[in-house]
Structure formats: C-alpha cells, structure tokens
Design a protein that fits this description.
The complex is a heterodimer of chains A (about 400) and B (about 240). Chain A is built from 13 helices and three strands. Chain A has about 400 residues and is mostly helical. Chain A has a single domain, classed as Formate dehydrogenase/DMSO reductase domain (Formate dehydrogenase/DMSO reductase fold). Chain B has one domain: 2-Layer Sandwich (Alpha-Beta Plaits). The chains are: A mainly alpha (about 400), B alpha+beta (about 240).
Chain lengths: ~400, ~240
Amino acid sequence: MSVASIRYATLDAGRSYWGLLAVLAGVTLVGLAGFLHLEHEGHWITGMNNQVVWGIPHVFAVFLIVAASGALNVASIASVFGQVTYKPLARLSGLLAAGLLIGGLVILVLDLGRPDRLIVAMTYYNFKSIFAWNIFLYTGLLAVIALYMFVLFQPAFARWTRAAGTLALLWRLILTTGTGAIFGFLVARQGYDAAIMAPLFIIMSFSFGTAVFMLVLTAACHGSGRVLGDALLFRLKNLLAVFVSAVLYFVLAYHITNLYATEHHGYEAFILNFESLYSKLFWIGQVGFGSLVPLALFYAPRTRTCRISTHVGAGLVILGGLIQMYVIIIGGQAYPLVLFPGMEESSSFYDGVVASYIPSIWEFLLGFTGVAISLIVVVAGLGALGILPEDLSDPKPAG
Amino acid sequence: MSLDLSRREFLQGAGAAGALTLAPGVFLHAKDPEVPVTDAVRWGMLVDTRLCQEDCDACVTACNEEHNLEDLGRPETDAQWIRKLTVRDPLGGRTISLPMMCQHCENPPCVDVCPTGASFRRVDGIVLVDKHTCIGCRYCMMACPYKARSFIHENLTEQLPHAPRGKGCVESCTMCVHKVDAGENTTACAEACHKDGHQAILFGDLNDPDSEISKRIQEFGATQIRADLGLNTGVRYQNL
C-alpha cells in the first residue's frame, strides 16, 4: 500500500461519539472538583504523607508519560525504519502519544503542592535537576509531535517524514531516559539509585505504549465501523510480546544485580519475599497477570490467533504496567531509608519501619482525570482530523 | 513578655547598628541585610551522642516552639524539622540517641534535584527553601538521604515572621538562620540542649579553627552520617 493511496477519514460525530466525549468530560469535571477540594484542604486528605510523598497521582502520571513515549513506536517503525504496514497508523500513533502526554502532565501539575505556581516552574530553572530537564523534554515532545503530524498531513512535506520521525524517536528515547533517571538519580534510596532505571523505563514505554495503542486502535475501529485486519492486529501483538519479554529481562537484571550486593538484600527481600503488599503486587500483578499471562495468551497455539485473547493480553499489560509503577514508586518510598547501615533505627518520624500508604479517592480522581483528558484529546482528534485510514482490513491476496 | 522575646526585639531594633555590646567584652554582630553572606564562615553543628539523653527531647520542643511547628495529631503528615533518633547495634545491643535534622550538606541532593532552584545553599553553608519559588513537587524529599524535610499538608495559621511557612511547600531545619543573621550565633536546639545541661549540640563556624566546634572536631574527630555519599555535611556527630 503506498502512502499516497491511503485515504483517511474523521470519525462520524454521531450520538455515541458525543456520548463518549460527554462521559469523558464528566469524569474530568468530577476529577477537577476533587482537585479543587484537595487544593483547598491540602494534601493531608490524601494517603500521601512525609514518608510516601508521591502517591497514586504519580503512578498514573508516570505511566501515562511513559506510555506516551511508547505510543510513538508505530510512528517510529513506519517513518524511521520504513515498515510500510504501519504507515497508515502513524497519525494515530502521534495523536495518541500527544494525548497520553498531556494527560500525564495535567496530573503532575494538579498534584503539585502549589499548582498555582506553574509559571514559576516555567521561568525558574535549575539545570542540574533532571526534573527541570524533563519540563523541556515533555513540552518539547509535544512540539516535536506537532511537527511530525504537520509533515504527515502535508503531502508537500512528505520527504521530511523520515527526518521528523527520527527527531521524534530520538526525543522520546531521551525523554524516557529522563523519566527513568528521576528515580535512577536518587542516590540515597535503596530501591532506586540504579542506572538501569533509564533503559528499564525505555523498554517499559515500548510495552505500555504498544498495549495502549492496540486497544485504542481496536476501539476506534470498532466505534467507527472499520474493519481492523487480523494481520495488522497480530503483528502488533507479536511486537508487544517481544516488549513484554524485554521488560521482564530488564526487571530480572535489576533484581539479580541488587541481589549480588548484600547492602540491597533488605530491599530485595521486601520486594521478592512475598510477604509485603508490594511483593505480592510484584509477583501476582506485575510478573503474573501483567507479564506471564499476556505472554501465554500471545504465544499459546490456542490463543495466539484469537482477537479477544490479544485484547485481554494488551489490557493485562496495561494493568501490570500500572502495578509495576506502583511497586517502583510507592514500594521504593515505603521501604525505610537506611541512615545507619547495619543498625536498627527508630523515631517518631517512622525511621526504620515500612511507611504506610493508603491511597485516597482524591488521588484516584486525579489519576482518572488524566486518563480522561488523554482520551478526550484522542477522541477529539479522531473526530476533527483525518487520523484513521478508512480501510485497515487485511490486504487481499494477489490474483 | 518573656526575657527571650524582649532580647530578640531589642536585637532586631538594633540590628542596623551592626554590633552592640551585650556585656563587657561580649559583642553581638547582627548581619546587615544589605550585605550578602560570605563563605568566610561555614555554619555547622556538632552533636556528641554520649551527652544526648534518650529520654530528652528538649531540642525538638525548642525547635517546634521557635518555628511554631504545631502537633496537629496527624503524625504521618505533621512537620518535623528535628527528631530524636534511636540507633541500636544488633550486635551487643548498644543504643545511642541523637537529634536528626537537615545535615546542611555542602553538596545537597535536595538542591541538585529541585527543578526551580527553590532549594538552595547559602554560601555560609545553610541549606534553605525559598518559599516563593517552591512548587511543592516533593522531589527534594525523595532525594534527601536523611528524611529531613516535611511537606506542609494543610493550611497554617499564626505563623511567625521569622519562620514563614505555607501549605503546599516543603520545609526543613533552617539552622535558625534568623538567629544567625541576628548575630545570636546559636540555634534553638543547641540553646535548649545547653539549658537542660546536656550540651550535646554545639553550634559554630566550621571554617574558624579557633571556634569551639572546630577545636572539638580537631581534638576528638567527628563523623558524618552516610559519609559514603560524599555530601560533606555541616552537621557532624561524635561517638556514634
């Protein structure tokens, strides 16, 4: 299929389309009302405290930002590596990445102690901070995606597609490196302070972004009456299976390395011994339902060509991804800081004990708001622009 | 009106004079607010754990009163600028008690990670948070190896002019910078410890070889907590 022959069309703005947008807007409004309450009362109404300072909002935000980077996989494969099969989907890839990124950023801003000082965050910079760099990387990726989409939409600029796609690929790899480095650079925390965090987050982005892309693509095709061919869907599934395996490999490398260093045995036991909540989430949620079950669905002879199994698998990868974020972000904070290695510590400030964290409804509302905003961007984009090809069915055999 | 308050008010009023005589031979130099601090001094504290009593929290009480840190009955979110830490060696069971607060590092991780530069280190060694540019992202709390920082989780009232605090910002021990700049050259915790007769906390200029703190470090040595991180802390401990 040549690029020039692809015909794109907007989604029909029927009742179901507007109904979906209304539901998403409703979720957003409820979430924003929750935010106003949180902003008025302060963070004491959440489960966050002085020990676990980043909670559910960060789990959602980091997941969405990482998934945004990975949602560009299809664009990169199409525009940089020249895989013709994926070229019809490059626009959706760019739109979804922008939507996920915006949703994630909204959560981050709304969870600030002083969200009213967003302008401060955009005018005062400490360039030794990876957070400051990420502000540029996140907003910069939105600009790069806009440029990439412009090139895709303008036939006159078609020869720049590969250049714009390459820029987007490099930018998102740096962005996800920066996101992983937020944790990798924390020198004092037992669960962080690891260079592998950066590549781990990159491969996580590939996995989560592809899973989200598959479900959004399927939903968009289903909602608009398009036929999504088996070949395309299962090709994406095979790609996702490789990414899920790769995430498992990086997680294994992380824990094996930690297990070799005696100083990390406490934290490793905390995550691996199946006693703490985080350990159960790790084994059952992240490794079991989030990785092994999807891999079984993707590769088992009886399910590998089943569309439902593919969708269930992608959904489980997303669920497992959120749980992985929870284990990394909350588990890493809940494990006590070691001030005196080899000693037992206690204080009125919860030294030496696992910190408690019980997520609140206010935090989930912020997370849901981010997801809803991401989807609003995608649905609005699909309705306003020719993002989705009219025909995504399998090519008919020659002759 | 307490004697202490009277003295402070008197000092604030006389601050512009630069130096005044408290008693024959005892001079107190208030910093001229127009004159920037210099790195000629490096303020620090020395804690002798042998003198720190496990059942005493005078330093904590004094800090809370000095900065109006209220107990709101929510220990998980209430601010603690200084806390008493009990450290027990599982081999033999030796237990020591010590005050733990911001260690005023020369290379503070909180300053490194702060996106807006709100966390900063004065050249005289005091690590502070600029309450005007803190956006409440809490990355500094993730980065601090000493868990020395608190996030303000609720609205605050009756704040003190010398200790501005606010919902949504992060804060920590200021090494009583208001006292330092007023020329008092002490901290509330050190004063309280001294008043209780323990004298476990000593405040002073680490750059001045003739200061009491420097002499004690020269004579007996001192340890940094998590020295492996290479942060060169301004708070040092003896007999850990």
